[in-house]
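Example 3.2
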Amino acid sequence: MTPHVFLTRVVLRNYKSIARCDVRLGPLTYLIGANGSGKSNFLDALHLVRDALVNSLDNALNERGGLNEVRRRSSGHPTHFGIRLEFCLSDGRPGRYAFSVGALSGGSYEVQVEECAVGPLGSGPAFRIERGQLKATSETTFPAVTADRLALVSASGLAAFRPVYDALATMGFYNLNPKLIRELQKPQDGRLLKPAGENLAGVIGHLERTAPHVMQLIEQYLQTVVPTVHGVERKQIGPMESLEFRQEVIGAKHPWRFQAQNMSDGTLRALGVLTALFQGSQDARPSLVGIEEPETALHPAAAGALREALHRAACQTQVIVTSHSPDLLDDSQLSPDSLLAVVSEAGETKIASVDEGSRTALREQLFSAGELLRLDQLAPDPEVLAQQALRQAELFGEAVP
């Protein structure tokens, strides 16, 4: 199966610790860097787009502490941040969506520019909004827009832009919380997993009903990662729901059943990660899955099974993971194109493909990516970083090579 890549390029300006970023993405991308380097900020920029479309821009900013906590802090005091996403829709059409948000006096903000285009410039659906004013569009009619909201939300009512909205709104981002997974959960929509796993029982129940083959695959990987666990299922407990695990016990002829509150953090996180990767059906699957440090709380010996699951999932859904685990990267077949190195210099996050020396070592299989990480030899290519600084890729307008 040829994997479908939804986001092909991401350009960021002044987002949290990231002054500038211009990277290409593939089916599976590993963001590699030390704690505090800014890996999570890259994923959070994409998450903000999703949150601003599904809820509202105001809500997305407030959840992150407001505009002042989102735009980069520096001696230059930037008053805005910007995001540009280039994508390929499921029907093969390329496109781009970009916006910049700037501060106003009194602590408020405005969407300075917002632009969306599907297909080559001038030949497909497109619109451009500047400070709440429609400047250009391919459509004969266009809904009312305001400067404090993203216009794509209103434009999603038009058939021309609905595929863009749907694809961006179904991106999923995960930092699994075993505490929330362990607690009894209110019955919730189980079609897509929520960011911390707070509806994991509902998602498992939905898969049991609609995609038992997917549930079987998740259980197979879970047993590979945690050999004593033989299965899991959703359980109704009064008005609430939980998870029940079947686990091998020494001396017992059959696996015993344990509620989620009795399971380890590693087991619950592993189940959450696997569910995030394989959730959904053919027509209701996330366009992209981003996972924070999927190896957390897992035994190093489980890294191989987790890596295999990531690669398998990337055949049907684009995957981005943050990691600083050499064990997860100990694969001689790992392509250097799947790695983005992240470093922090004087508080500024820099992201680029790995340097040419490391790429050569990986291509010639002299070292695995994990071995290079242990040797502290996975760093952003300085030439690529220099090109990023010189080029200052535009947030708006036609794509440049």
